[in-house]
Amino acid sequence: MAAFLLVGGIASSNAQDIDQSKVPAAVKAAFAKAYPKATDVDWEMKGGNYEADFDLGKIDHKATYMGNGKVVSFEKDIPNTQLPAAIAKSIKAKYPKGRIDDVDWINAGGKISYKVDIEGTPDVNVWYGADGKFVKEVAD
């Protein structure tokens, strides 16, 4: 999981918006099949992968695909109240003056993790595994 998050972090710094016409047909077909009700779809290149940022209802989502249409990862915003209690407790202990601003639920290859944006002194993004264990922290 740490390797995926590291690669994702590096790829994030190299993200580039692209027009839908530049997205391979296999990727567009896989996306349309998985998310037929998606709205406000924007595409980016992240490393060699294609990432769709979109809404389902009023919830932000991201799906990342390889050029052949295979899913790399999927994430969605979740309410702070859906953050597992062990993670919330760890954050409160580690960042007592911080405030949870945003929580993303991430499924990468069947492995679940959480990315939590914390506002405080300083602002940070932290990742936790589904087991509640701290993975990494990145300054925001």
UniProtKB/TrEMBL annotation:
Look up the domain of life of the source.
Bacteria
- Name the InterPro entries for this protein: PepSY-like (IPR021533)
SUPFAM superfamilies in the record: BT0923-like
Specify the Putative beta-lactamase-inhibitor-like PepSY-like domain's residue ranges. 49-135
Q: Which Gene3D superfamilies match?
A: 3.10.450.360
Q: Name one Pfam family in it.
A: PepSY_like
- Tell me the protein's name: PepSY-like domain-containing protein
Q: Give the lineage.
A: Bacteria, Pseudomonadati, Bacteroidota, Sphingobacteriia, Sphingobacteriales
